[in-house]
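Sat 14:20. Reprocessing the chain from the morning session after the first attempt stalled halfway. Input below, unchanged.
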Amino acid sequence: MALSAGTLFVTSKRLLFNGESRNTSITLTKIVDGHVYSDCIRIEKSSGKPDLFSMNTAQARFVLSLVSVLKEQ
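Finished this time. C-alpha cells:
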C-alpha cells in the first residue's frame, strides 16, 4: 500500500517527492545507497529510515543512475 501518490523530482542537489498527503526532500549527499525492485526504488540515507518510491524497474534504474552522476559533480 502506497503512503502517498505523487511525483518524484531529481534536482542537482536533492530528491524531492511532492505527494498528495506527504512530501519528502532528501539531499543527494545524504543518500548512501539505492536498491531497485520490480515495483519500487529504496533510497538508503545516512540517517533515518529508508524511503521507498513506487515506479517500474527502468524508471528506478534511471533515477539511481542520475543520482550517481549528480553526486560525482
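The first strand starts at residue 6 and ends at 10.
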